[in-house]
Each structure stands twice: as structure tokens, then as C-alpha cells.
């Protein structure tokens, strides 16, 4: 029940509490009332049922992948 | 970067690390390890990637109470169907998944065909927009889902209030995941070697909310994302714990999940909802595991605005949903599976939602006429 | 009628079989569909037949909305029936078209639809030689429904049939999957998605006639309409008793279609197509057929997507990871999900 | 499906082309329409053709109510298309049938309609060899619409055409007028009339085949459906450029039909028939044809109703008093009036 | 017995008496006598029997203001169309004839196709039954007609009151016949040798109500029934008066029409309606010739409940309805007749109702492609 | 606007103010609130817009027809 779609922020309207995100080349307006942090274009959000539920830490994603490369090369 | 997480080449390489590790764990346990995912979207992702077949023999993946449709009590389903049937003047707003869920005698799809008005919404925000655009209609939104979804529904009530809409209300069947996992893990018959925790529920609740899995029940747990690499990573991290004899609640989804979760979402949930005792299919009453609207929002509470009484009805005869959701059996062990119970004519709710344990199993892992033997090829 | 500004919509009286019906036929249908055989004031159209095997196919078109990116209900109604004949190995010749119109439908839209039908017929080299028009009240139809029926001659060289399928045959499609179904869905549901998906709606008969002439190894064709690739492949598998093994990695799906279906919790393999068809062809001709499709017909996304194996009527998808899952018939139309 | 009491109505999912559609086809259409050529899981039906002239005709049926005294929409859909072929001088062979069903329609009613179609086909000696089913939402159709398309061979001896009409020819009908249109109207409007009018809905092809064989003087036939005798006669007159002179006193109309139409301010000459047709025949054969119809076909109300005169495409009615009035095409469907 | 009145053999025999008498009158007048029928149903009966063609050359029959649709003012028609267009929540109830009447820019049929709700009723009683059965709908019944119809509409208001319906009202465009005949007969240009009086209007008003035709205007008049024999009898009685130089208002329909008419119907009309000045097409304002609901029934008066303003619009350009209704010309003399004005696309209202003077003429007595010469054969 | 249909009374309900009349073999319930006179089966009514507007005097009809026969034979 928790289909989440990652999307890259391309426009932010804090006053009206929405952002436009792009996922797989498609743009969609989503609510950002649940997001505490500041948002700027280029940020990534996880979207569920029309609302962003969290900001994606791309640095973490990178670290994660690097970790795998290490493990895989360890053999 | 996110694309890399679904790169099949990377996936295959990880798999080549995962399988030997799973074999090692199986050797230690004397049987393949059994992991349970408790998120329907994990169920789907595993099924669609074919992961279960790739790990067959060395690791077993089972589906727990992760599909909100499947765990919704028969009585609750009957209630919304009864409301739709009795009040053709209402617009029942719902996520697509609830449309075909069978109640005791009918479904929303059946009632729509008989004249009930049922609208499918992708977001509760759309339901509010619809209510605003149709002032002569009365919209009842069916709030189903866990911590991931409940904040969005709370926000829809907030939006209706701020736009002063009198024709929008929510029928809340929301439930909370940690509460039911406590019950699940307390079952002495349960034989689960590790839990794959729901990444998006944890995005809201935070990793710490699930610490009890390892601290109280000594079961390894990993918060997982939804890409194939994420899932393999979760399995890897669980296997590592088994092999090293540890039990921790590890965050395998740090790019999104924080220790404390999403505080704003948690606050909003708290502001609009209060915990109540509710029935879960297969689990019975689980104290304080449901989310009802706070009294001060009763104007927006469909349970108050449009109370329905339905006679208590036994769960569908022979449906083994409870045991499936507890991981005690797999779907094909249910005597009704694929015989009386199919996605077309589901008997139990696990067969309804595409992410339901039985439906995913039916759709992706099993076939009426085919043998199950060689599908890994 | 068209010249009076207050006579811009279809009335129930246009369907009563009287003077207004007569005018409607003259001003629209006969005008656009003009040909020697069509005379909708007689009870039936007459044409000459030759000895041989004829194919006949009918379909009702009820698409909502009636205009969508890449086509309209009229183009669809012509393509749909032409394509059913085409994939049956027939050369479509004549169509009939029957309309059920909702009272209040604008003549301007009706004219666009009819012009589009006429144009599609021209492209495909078929003629509409008989028709009918009914008008129903408000709330008794959704704008306009069109049923087309087509007849054509089986191509002498074509030899298509379930019983010909055998292990080793290759499975091809002529292009990307899911566009039509998704284009329609996006028009219908106000999902606020900023992306234009174009329906693939197109007549296939000229292409199928050519490939059937050249490739005697073609054993079966199927247009991938309602239910999409998955449902249609499963139907064929069940009817022929062999298994399909499809490769997820080989399936041509546009990035934007992939993205949006993921967003909405849909599966592109179950979305309808209106210009795509599946071909089962003997292994030795598969390569050349693919080259021919890509080069001579600019079907640049034509792909070999799998092969036939001995089995029991199942469709398997080899996942990108190397796993396998089964594809079954669609059970319930695709709906946007949040799960 | 039929065995489960809570699965008694058609759902949108029955039209999605997936498993439910498959079941619907199996449980209803294939079961009742069973024949060698029908296999609705393929894209088209195939039949053998002979050299000659073929006729094709299509009609959509949207009648409300779907069940009425004397028939139902299924029987009507089969008769309507068979009769269009029949009056064109063709021997109907095959039909296609395409259904648009409103969500919520009871399977019990659908089954009655399909059984009725199958039965009518049997009586008329035709087969339904291809079909289609779509389901639309509530309020997007009125229960069920059926489009049938029929093909048949022109009878070698038949020589029908507007250009053959000439002064002196006689005009016949095969029975009483107005029953179908009135039966429908009475079912639809709650007029509180205590009288049962029975639709004349019937297939005519066996009769037309026989009379065409015997009477080479038959020059034109026309089934008197939408618009009734008046509109259809006017259409023929305009197309052939001769005048029709009909005798009011000779027109066969049942007393109860006469009475009710008077009561409601309607004209039976503009009401639809579904088993009645007009014949223009050379004068020298008129008497024998009439006798043949009355005696060999029990068409006891068959009548000679007028004749053809040189003219300009008009239809005149000689009134009982000896006056004359013109009949024009219907302008607007008949409505109950109080004036 | 009543069947005898439509016996064609009897009709033909009467005709054989009528024609010589008409010739005698024509000889006296120096031209064929001109009689006017002032009932649309007479217009229809004459047309359908072919009587006009049978009398051609010896007697001329013309249609007067006897079709309520034809005499309804353009502005009134625009009002009901505007109401239907503006208020898709209302159900406009009407007799079948009003459906296709063209207003300045639209018609009820057009508005129905655009979403207005228009229901055809055979009797106003049915409209009340409909309102009672559809309590959520608001029914506005279009009251059109003369003294024959007005009592039935008054009874519908009575029925709505006694059933305490709040959702039924009447838009009354009812008119009275004697009043407009006074205006008609006062026209110095009028050349009419006799009036065929409306038998069913007279059933309500009584014969005496039309005495003024002969006493004040010295025009012979006969109250006529609607069977062919009735109409020939009326013509016979008029011709007899002409030949003998008398002018009386004769009751040619004594089996139904009484001297004083139907007192109960007259009382009910008086109770519910009051005379008001209204516009007649072709006649302009005719004082006290309309029937509006009495103030005490304003709850049932759609003119009060749903007031509509429409801008005054000129009558259709070129429409000669006024002259047709006054008998100054026949329909085919109108320059628009059968060219711009046909039953399919009526310009003027006389072309709309099947009983309208121009529509009956078009339908039964004239043809686009045919010659008019030989239709008597 | 005054289409009237003659009908023979076959049933009367004065209390509820309706009668069933038969015309041309067809039966229909009509309102009789506008009829002052007593009604019995066999009477004839003239019906307009669902209400009887008057009772038909069959004796008058007979006299009328006899008169015509006289006139026609007079010649
Ligand atoms: S197969 Fe059906 S009946 Fe059996 S457990 Fe699953 S949902 Fe319940
Ligand atoms: S023909 Fe038309 S425009 Fe002319 S008077 Fe008659 S209604 Fe008016
Ligand atoms: Mg016909
Ligand atoms: Mg088809
Ligand atoms: Mg098709
Ligand atoms: Mg037709
Ligand atoms: Mg609609
Ligand atoms: Mg097809
Ligand atoms: Mg036809
Ligand atoms: Mg026809
Ligand atoms: Mg089809
Ligand atoms: Mg309906």
C-alpha cells in the first residue's frame, strides 16, 4: 500500500505548499506539507498518494552503491 | 544514480554474492532461512523481479500483513459496501485497490454497477478537489493504509476544513504497522528468521519505531527500499545477521529513512487521528492499532456522519488469509487457492489487491495449467 | 444544417429515420464516405465476390474520450477492424459503420470523427459501403459509439493458425507497447501529469499483407488491443497449448510509458495497443523479418521479444534479473493504484 | 459465474478484455451461438465465398425497452439485419453481433436476449460467426445496444432496383401496419392504456426468397422500419422519380392500433414495423402474389395498397372520402399529443 | 353510432349535397365562400380527410388562430426555453407539441439535447404524479391551451395542493378563444364568410359564448365536431345561412355542446385563473385574453417561483404567421413557406405543431417536388 | 390543441373521481372531476388531456344522423 515514486524537484512553491517533481521524464505537482526541510530544484523527493513523504539523500544512495561495488570486488 | 539501483547487471552480480550467503545460512539453520516482508509493495517488487524463484532452495520469502486491503476486517469492508449500497446519493471516493474487495455479499464494484457512485482517486487531495467542484455531491473518502498514507488523508481533512467544505468526510480504516508486528512476533508458532521492514512506513515512523523487533523478540530486521538492489541488500543484511548470530534492526534504506522518521508527518497524524482498538483480518482485535479521527473533526468523520450497522459475518469459509498473513503457510497451501479463490472471484481479501499475498502469488508465481518446476529458467 | 448557428448539435430527431436522419446522412456520412457501393438509403450494399476464403470481423468502439493524442474514435474504429482482418491474414476490402450518438453531441465533433474515418480508410485502401445511425437520449450513451464490421479476402499465401506453433518459433512485436491504453487513461483521469503520450493507433493491413507475402514462416499474428501483450499472449498460449517465454529486457516500452505506469502502479504489458501486433514466426525467418520491419517499414522499435517452448499454455516472463514470472490474463481493467 | 447469487450483473470488468470477458464469451455468447465458424477468441471469422454478388447491411439496435410484447432487442437485432438483406433480394448467410452493455445489466436478461437471438437465427437459417462485447459505465448506455451486420448472396433471379418502377405497377404490403412502433411506445410511456399491442418483429428472408423465385415481376422491396410506410414510400418515390398513390381505405391497420394512435394523436403510417415490407410488383403479377402471400404464407392481412403513377417523387394518399393528401418524410419522432 | 359519423360512404353522399350548395353560395357571392376554422384539431381533421381538395373551387377553408402553439408569443416561448436552459435542475413538463417550437435562438428539444430535463406528458395529471414520485425533482408544467385544456391544468394544481406537493408548479400561457375572435372579426380587412367554431372549446364555454360572432359581427358561425361528417355538416349549415342571407351561431355539435357549456369546468377555471392581458402572435396584445394563476396559488405559479427575464426579440424575419392566422393569406403565400420554413426547421410557430396552419398545409396539401394541380384525383 | 377522444364508460369511481373508458377497444382511466352529471357504465364521455370534458348525448347523435338520412333522401 505504499507505492512510492522518487522524483526530482523542478519547481517549488512553499507558500502554496506544492512542488513540481519529475520522475521518468514525467512532471507532476505534489503536496509538500509533510516536508520539514528546505527544498530547492534538484532535490529528490519520495512521493506517495500525491504527497512527498520524505527527501531522498542522494549522498546516501551514492555511498550505498559504492559499498556494493566494494563488496562485489572483494571476492 | 537512482537508476543504478535497478540495473539488472548490478542485480545479477549482487545475486551471485547473495546465493552463497543464503546457502551458508541454510546450512547453519538446517533449512533455508525464512524472511517475511511486511509491505505489499515489497511483495509486488519481489514477485515482479522474480527474486523468489532466483533464491528458491536457499532462501524463502513470505508475505506478512503488509497489504492494508488484506488486513481490513470483513465487517469494515461490509460497512463501506453497505454505505455505498444504501446511499446512492453519496460519492464513495477510494484508491483503486479497494474497488474489487469482496465483502460478505458484494463489493464496491458490484454496488457501482447497481447504481452506487464510486470514484477512484489517486490522492486524497483529489477527492477534496472533487468535493469542492461538486458542491451538490457528498464525498466520503475511504481512508485505508498505514503510516505512509494516513498523513495524506489527515491533510485532506485539513484542506476540507480550510476550504470550509461541508461535503467531504473520511471513513478511516487506517492502521499502524508496529502494533500488529508485536502481535505477529508474539505468536509462538511463528517461524520467521528475519523481517524485511516497510521502507515507506519507516520513512514516517523512523527506524527506531521498529527496534523492538530485534530487542524484544530477538528477530533480525532490515528496513528496505523497493528497488531490486534494495531488496537484495535487505536479504544480504539479514543473512549477515543470521550467519553472525546477531539480531538488530538495521536501516537498509538510509537515503530516505531517518532514525526518528518524518516528524511533521507524525505530528499531523497525531493531530488528526487517535489510536483505537481495531479488528485485523487473521489477527483479531489488536489494541490501539487503528487510527480514528479525533472527536474535534467529527464533522469530517464519515463514521459519525453516516453511521452504518452491519450484522457480524463470519470470514469467508475456508479462507486461510490469517495463516498466510502470519507466514504460517504460503498461499498455495490454502485449500481454496486457485480453485474457489482467484483474482477474478476472490474469496479472501489477500486475493484482491494486486499486492495482496495471494494475488501476487497467483499472478506471478503460479499458474493453473503450468507446472511450478522449471520457472526459474 | 451546418450553416445555422443554433443547429450545432445532434437531436433525438436526427435518429428517427425521417427527414433529419436523411439530412444527417447526406450532409455527413454520404459526403465523407462517398464511393460507388455506398448508398445508405438502400437496405444493403452490394459488391462482387470471388471464390475463395473471406474473413469477417466486428468490433464496437466506446473509447472515452473520443478525441485523444494520436487519434479519435473514428480512426480507432476503422483501424481496429482493419487490423483484426489484417492479423487474420486477410486483405480488408469493405467496412460497415454503425453509429450510436448521444443527443447533444456537437456536429463539429461528429464531422471531425467522420472525416478521420474517411481519411483512415483512404490510407488503408478500404471503403465504407454500408452504415447506420441511431441517436439516443442524454445519459444513454457517452457521446458516440461506433461499431465497424469488415470483410476481406484471405491472402492466398497466408497460412495462420494456432496448430502451427511449435517449440523454437520466435515471437516478435512491431513496436513499443502500452501507448494507446496509457494515452486514453491519462486523458480520462485528471492525474495532473505533464506528459504527452501518443496513441499508436494505425492501420496495419498494408504492412501485414506485405510481410505475409514475403515470409511464409509467419504462423500467427495478433493485434495487441484490450488486455495488452500479456492477455493476448496468454490467450494464444492457451489456444495452442505451447508456452511463451518472453524476455522482460527485450520488451520495447517507451521511457515515458515506463515511468508513468510505474507512477500509477500499472503494468504496460496489460495496456491496450492499437497499432501493435505480435508475430509468431519460424526461427529461421525471424532475423530477416525483424530486419525487414525495421528497415523497410521504419518500425524501428520492432523487436524479437521471446520464443515458443513446449508447454501447457503458459506465458512466462524472464525478468531482467534472470528470474521468471508468469503472465496471466488481465483480471479487471488497469486502475491507478497507490500501492 | 451464473451459479453465484452475488454475481448476477455485468461489471465493467466484464468488458476489459481479460479473464472476465473471456468467461462472458464462453458462458453466454459461444454457448448460445455455437457453430463451426464462430470462435470469438480469434480476430476474425473465416468463411468460403462463391463468385457472385454479395449484399452487406448493418444496423444498430437501441430499442427501449429491451423486452416488449412480441420480442426483445436480440430478436429485433437479428430480424432487422436479416430483413434488410432479404428486401435487397439477398439470401442472408452470416451475421456478426456487437454488444455494448451498461454496467449493472442482469445476466439473466442478457441470457434471454442471447437465447432469443440464437433462436431467431435458427428460424431464419443464419449463423452468427463473429462478435464483440464492450461494457460501459452506468448512464453511458441504456441497458444494452446491439449492432448486427449481415452478409448474404444476391438471389440469381432477383432484379430489384428503383429504375425498374413504372406507372401501373402495384404496391403491396404483407400485413398490418404500426404494431411494432406502437408496442414500443406503449411500453415506454406510462399512458395507463389497458391494451396489449404485439410487435410484428419477424424474420422475412425465407418468405422473400420464395416470392422472388416465383414472381419475376417484383421490382422493389423495402422493410417498413423507422419512419414507417409513409417515410419509406417517400424515400422510394424520391429515389425513383415516380409517384405513389396509396388508398387510405386499403391500408391494413388493426383496430386497436387505429384506436390508440387516434387517442394519442399519432399516425400509424409513420410508426415503425419490424416484420412488414412493401413490394412494388408488375400489375399482371399483383393478384397472384397477393393470393400467394395470403394463402401460402398465411399473411392474411397482406393487401394491395396502391399503385405507381408517373410523377415527381411524391406519395399521395387517397382518403376514404375520395380526397387526397400528401405523405412526406417523418419530421421528428412521433410523440403523444393532446392536440 | 359514433362510428357512423366517420363512415366514408355517408361522407361521400353528404359531399354530393354539399358541393352543389357551395356552388350556389359561390354564385351568390361572386366567388367561393371562405370559411375559417379556429381549432387546430379541425385544421388537422380537414387536412387528413382531404376535404379541402374535395371542395376546391367551390369553397375555401382557411385556418385561424386555433393552434395554441402558433399563437403563443415569441417572448413567452423564449421564456420557457431560457428557463430550461438556465435550470438543468428543473424538469420541464410539456405536451408533446411544444418540444420543437422554435424560440429566437433555441427550442426545448435543443435545450434537452444540451442537458435540460424535458418530460413529455399526455395529461397534466401525469405531471403531478411524476412530481409526487420524484420528490427531489422540481417539476414545472407548461400550461398551454384554450378553455378545453385550462380546466385540466387547474385540476393539476388542485391535485398538487391536496397532496401537499412543493415541487410542482405551472407556467400558464393559457388563452381564451372568444376574446381573440372579437379582435379577429374587428379587422376591417378580414374577408371571412363563416366561422367553424371549436367544438371542444365550446364544450366548456357553451354555444352562447360565441353568439357575438353573428349578433355583433353578423358572421355566420357553426359549432362543429371533429368527424368528417361533423365538418361537412358545419360547412352545410354555414352555406345554408349564406344562401338564405342569415347569420346565426348554430350548434352543429349538440351531442356534446350545451348552451351554457360545462359549468363545473368554468367554475374551476375561474377559481384558479384570472384573465390578464397577453400577447398573441400575429394579433399583438389582446386585453383580458390570457389566463394567469390567481395570486392565492402563487406557490404553484412558475412565473412567480422561477421568474425569467428575456430580452424582447422581434418575431422571425419574414414570418407571415400573423396574416396566416387572420386568414388573410394561405401558408403557401408566405415567402418563407417550404423554403426557409419547413417542419424540420420551422421559422414560425405555425410550422411547428402538426396542427399548426402551415405545418398541416405542408404535410398534407403541398409538396416540394410535386405539382399542386391534380391532387384531387 | 383540443384533441378529444370519445369513450364508453365501463367503470366509475365517483369517490376518487375517475372512470375507466373504452375507446376503439382500448381502456383508459380518466379524471371525471369536470363532469357534473351522474355517470353509469354505458355512458359516453369526451376525453381531453386525461380528463372528461363532457358527456356525449347519444340521442342527439342519433337524431343528427337521422336528419342527414332525411336530407340525403330528400333529393
Ligand atoms: S487463496 Fe483466497 S481464500 Fe485462500 S488465503 Fe488467499 S485470499 Fe484467502
Ligand atoms: S410558413 Fe413559416 S414563416 Fe411562413 S407564416 Fe408559416 S410559420 Fe410563419
Ligand atoms: Mg431497411
Ligand atoms: Mg473483431
Ligand atoms: Mg478487435
Ligand atoms: Mg439502418
Ligand atoms: Mg454523458
Ligand atoms: Mg484483435
Ligand atoms: Mg441496414
Ligand atoms: Mg434496417
Ligand atoms: Mg472484439
Ligand atoms: Mg440508464
UniProtKB/TrEMBL annotation, chains A, F:
Ranges that cross the membrane: none
Source species, domain of life: Bacteria
Cross-referenced Pfam families: HupF_HypC
PROSITE patterns registered for this protein in UniProt: HUPF_HYPC (PS01097)
GO terms classed as biological process: protein maturation
SUPFAM superfamilies: HupF/HypC-like (SSF159127)
One Gene Ontology molecular-function label: carbon dioxide binding
Family: Belongs to the HupF/HypC family.
Official protein name in the record: HypC/HybG/HupF family hydrogenase formation chaperone
UniProtKB/TrEMBL annotation, chains B, E:
Single biological process term from Gene Ontology: protein maturation
InterPro entries recorded: Hyd_form_HypD, HypD_1, HypD_2_sf
Coiled-coil stretches: none
Chain segments annotated as transmembrane: none
Pfam family, one: HypD
UniProtKB keywords: Iron, Metal-binding
Protein family per UniProt: Belongs to the HypD family.
NCBIfam families reported in the protein's UniProt record: hypD (TIGR00075)
Protein name, UniProt field: Hydrogenase formation protein HypD
Species, as recorded: Pelotomaculum isophthalicicum JI
Gene name linked to the record: hypD
UniProtKB/TrEMBL annotation, chains C, D:
UniProt-listed NCBIfam families: hypE
Domain spans labelled PurM-like C-terminal: 166-313
Name of the protein: Hydrogenase expression/formation protein HypE
All copies of domain PurM-like N-terminal, residue ranges: 43-153
Organism per entry: Pelotomaculum isophthalicicum JI
Signal peptide (from-to): none
SUPFAM superfamilies: PurM C-terminal domain-like, PurM N-terminal domain-like
Phylogenetic placement of the source organism: Bacteria, Bacillati, Bacillota, Clostridia, Eubacteriales
Single GO biological process annotation from the record: protein maturation
Domain of life: Bacteria
Coiled-coil boundaries: none
Similarity annotation: Belongs to the HypE family.
Amino acid at each position: 500500500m505504499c507505492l512510492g515514486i522518487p522524483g526530482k524537484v523542478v519547481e517549488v512553491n512553499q507558500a502554496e505548499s506544492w512542488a513540481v517533481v519529475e520522475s521518468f521524464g514525467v512532471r507532476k505537482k505534489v503536496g509538500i506539507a509533510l516536508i520539514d526541510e528546505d527544498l530547492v530544484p534538484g532535490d529528490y523527493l519520495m512521493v506517495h498518494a500525491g504527497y512527498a513523504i520524505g527527501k531522498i539523500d542522494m549522498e546516501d544512495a551514492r555511498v550505498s552503491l559504492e559499498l556494493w561495488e566494494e563488496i562485489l570486488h572483494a571476492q | 544514480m537512482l537508476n543504478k539501483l535497478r540495473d539488472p547487471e548490478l542485480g545479477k552480480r549482487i545475486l551471485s554474492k547473495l546465493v552463497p550467503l543464503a546457502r551458508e545460512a541454510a546450512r547453519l539453520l538446517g533449512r533455508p532461512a525464512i524472511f517475511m516482508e511486511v509491505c505489499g509493495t515489497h511483495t509486488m517488487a519481489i514477485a515482479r523481479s522474480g527474486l523468489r524463484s532466483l533464491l528458491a532452495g536457499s532462501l524463502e520469502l513470505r508475505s506478512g500483513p503488509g497489504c492494508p486491503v488484506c488486513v481490513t476486517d470483513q465487517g469494515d469492508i461490509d460497512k463501506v459496501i453497505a454505505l455505498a449500497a444504501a446511499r446512492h446519493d453519496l460519492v464513495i471516493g477510494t484508491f483503486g485497490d479497494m474497488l474489487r474487495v469482496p465483502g460478505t455479499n458484494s463489493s464496491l464494484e458490484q454496488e457501482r454497477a447497481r447504481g452506487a457512485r464510486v470514484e477512484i482517486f489517486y490522492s486524497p487531495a483529489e477527492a477534496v478537489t472533487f468535493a469542492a467542484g461538486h458542491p451538490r455531491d457528498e464525498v466520503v473518502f475511504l481512508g485505508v493504509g498505514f503510516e505512509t498514507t494516513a498523513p495524506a488523508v489527515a491533510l485532506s481533512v485539513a484542506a476540507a476544513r480550510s476550504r470550509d467544505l461541508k461535503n467531504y468526510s473520511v471513513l478511516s480504516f487506517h492502521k499502524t504497522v508496529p502494533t500488529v508486528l508485536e502481535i505477529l512476533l508474539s505468536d509462538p508458532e511463528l517461524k520467521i528468521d528475519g523481517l524485511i521492514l516497510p521502507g515507506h512506513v519507516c520513512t514516517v515512523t523512523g527506524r527506531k519505531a521498529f527496534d523492538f523487533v530485534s530487542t524484544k523478540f530477538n528477530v533480525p530486521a532490515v528496513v528496505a527500499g523497493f528497488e531490486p538492489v534494495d531488496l537484495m541488500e535487505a536479504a544480504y543484511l539479514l543473512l549477515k545477521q543470521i550467519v553472525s548470530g546477531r539480531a538488530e534492526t538495521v536501516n537498509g534504506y538510509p537515503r530516505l529513512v531517518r532514525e526518528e522518521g518524518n516528524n511533521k508527518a507524525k505530528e499531523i497524524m497525531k493531530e488528526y487521528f487517535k489510536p483505537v482498538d481495531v479488528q485485523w483480518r487473521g489477527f483479531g482485535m489488536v489494541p490501539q492499532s487503528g487510527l480514528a479521527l479525533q472527536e474535534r473533526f467529527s464533522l469530517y468523520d464519515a463514521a459519525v456522519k453516516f453511521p452504518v450497522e452491519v450484522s457480524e459475518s463470519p470470514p469467508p469459509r475456508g479462507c486461510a488469509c490469517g495463516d498466510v498473513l502470519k507466514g504460517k503457510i504460503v498461499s498455495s497451501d490454502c485449500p481454496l487457492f486457485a480453485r474457489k479463490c482467484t483474482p477474478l472471484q476472490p474469496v479472501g481479501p489477500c486475493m484482491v489487491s494486486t499486492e495482496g499475498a495471494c494475488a501476487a502469488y497467483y499472478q506471478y508465481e503460479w499458474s493453473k495449467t503450468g507446472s511450478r518446476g522449471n520457472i526459474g529458467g | 444544417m451546418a450553416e445555422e448557428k443554433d443547429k450545432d448539435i445532434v437531436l433525438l430527431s436526427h435518429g428517427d429515420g425521417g427527414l433529419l436522419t436523411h439530412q444527417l446522412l447526406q450532409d455527413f456520412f454520404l459526403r465523407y464516405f462517398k464511393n460507388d457501393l455506398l448508398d445508405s438509403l438502400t437496405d444493403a450494399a452490394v459488391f462482387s465476390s470471388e471464390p475463395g476464403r473471406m474473413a469477417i470481423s466486428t468490433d464496437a468502439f466506446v473509447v472515452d474520450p473520443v478525441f485523444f493524442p494520436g487519434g479519435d474514435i473514428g480512426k480507432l474504429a476503422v483501424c481496429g477492424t482493419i487490423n483484426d482482418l489484417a492479423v487474420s491474414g486477410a486483405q480488408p476490402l469493405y467496412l460497415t459503420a454503425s453509429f450510436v450518438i448521444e443527443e447533444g453531441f456537437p456536429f463539429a465533433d461528429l464531422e471531425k470523427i467522420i472525416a478521420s474515418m474517411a481519411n483512415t480508410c483512404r490510407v488503408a485502401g478500404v471503403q465504407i459501403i454500408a452504415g447506420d445511425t441511431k441517436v439516443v437520449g442524454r445519459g444513454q450513451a457517452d457521446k458516440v459509439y461506433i461499431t465497424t464490421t469488415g470483410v476481406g479476402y484471405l491472402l492466398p499465401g497466408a497460412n495462420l493458425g494456432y496448430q502451427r506453433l511449435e517449440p523454437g518459433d520466435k515471437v516478435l512485436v512491431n513496436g513499443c507497447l502500452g501507448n494507446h491504453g496509457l494515452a486514453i487513461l491519462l486523458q480520462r483521469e485528471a492525474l495532473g501529469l505533464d506528459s504527452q503520450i501518443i496513441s499508436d493507433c494505425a492501420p496495419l493491413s498494408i504492412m501485414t499483407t506485405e510481410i505475409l507475402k514475403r515470409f511464409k514462416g509467419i504462423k500467427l499474428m495478433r493485434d495487441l488491443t484490450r488486455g495488452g501483450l500479456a492477455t493476448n499472449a496468454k490467450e494464444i498460449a492457451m489456444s495452442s497449448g505451447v508456452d511463451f517465454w518472453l524476455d522482460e529486457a527485450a520488451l520495447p516500452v517507451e521511457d515515458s510509458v515506463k515511468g508513468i505506469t510505474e507512477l500509477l502502479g500499472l503494468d504496460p504489458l496489460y495496456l491496450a495497443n492499437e497499432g501493435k501486433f505480435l508475430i509468431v514466426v519460424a526461427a529461421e525467418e525471424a532475423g530477416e523479418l525483424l530486419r525487414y520491419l525495421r528497415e523497410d517499414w521504419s518500425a524501428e522499435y520492432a523487436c524479437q521479444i521471446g520464443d515458443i517452448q513446449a508447454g501447457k499454455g503458459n506465458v512466462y516472463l524472464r525478468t531482467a534479473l534472470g528470474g521468471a514470472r508468469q503472465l496471466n490474463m488481465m483480471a479487471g481493467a488497469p486502475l491507478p493504484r497507490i500501492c
